[in-house]
Input
Amino acid sequence: MTQSLTNGEMRLPADWRDLFALTKPRVMSLVVFTALCGLLAAPGHVHPVLGFSSILAIALGAGASGALNQWYEAGLDAKMKRTAGRPLPAGRLDPQTALHFGVGLAAFSVFLMLFAANWQAAALLTVSILFYVLVYTIWLKPRTPQNIVIGGAAGAFPPLIGWVAATGSVAPLPVLLFLLIFLWTPPHFWALALFVRSDYAAAGIPMMPVVAGEPSTRRQILFYALIMAVAAIAPWPLGYTGALYGWCAAALSAVFVALSVQVGLRRTGEGDRMQPEKRLFAFSVAYLFLLFGAVVADHWLIA
Output
């Protein structure tokens, strides 16, 4: 049955798929993978059940963050073609349901981490959720084009949380992995923002291409790609990983930088069926999956 809205419109029926969509499952997959790699690369042994429960807690925390983000930004999502079909702007869910779902999921994820791992990991998970919702979504995103730069910390927590869940302490390698994702975030999201710029402009979101223009955004993508590449390779010469990771990081980062150079040198309006920014955005996702996979493979090889 449909649900009546107060303004006389009819709300489409919701089902579990709409609640699942609130969690941003595609984003969650990358969160889960990097967290799992952080856990697997940590020293020592984690009981499989407790390890699975810890990763589940991180996944649920990421899903809670996505749900609360969509609850808060429902009005903005309705103004953008890319997000207008989401459950809230499309009218398949009411905001109160989304809010309760997000808060409940967040609380459960933290308690699950506390019982499955340790209070340090639970505290980091809490900080990551609050940072994404309060600092990035509510404060930074609608106010500054640096939203992605500072807000990138929210997405950088998973490998650190996975490591701390396994060990109860912080070490240099997961901190470097945190830094890697932090520096990866601007070129990844600004590449997306370049080809959906009109969406952000219509919603009034001050993303870098909207505020600073495309030429400036392209230069900054290249700048962040270069320092990201340094951060990606750094664990090898610093002695925290072996040659397998080092060579993988060097090769993958070289491709990332090459694509960033194409984006940086491309002039606005140049025709291309597959624009450089689209290629960079697609590769940036594969880059993180492959690089973190190399962290685990390298750890197992050394062990």
About this structure: Residues 76 and 203 are 5 Å apart (CA to CA). Residues 171-303 form one domain. The chain has two domains: 14-169, 171-303.
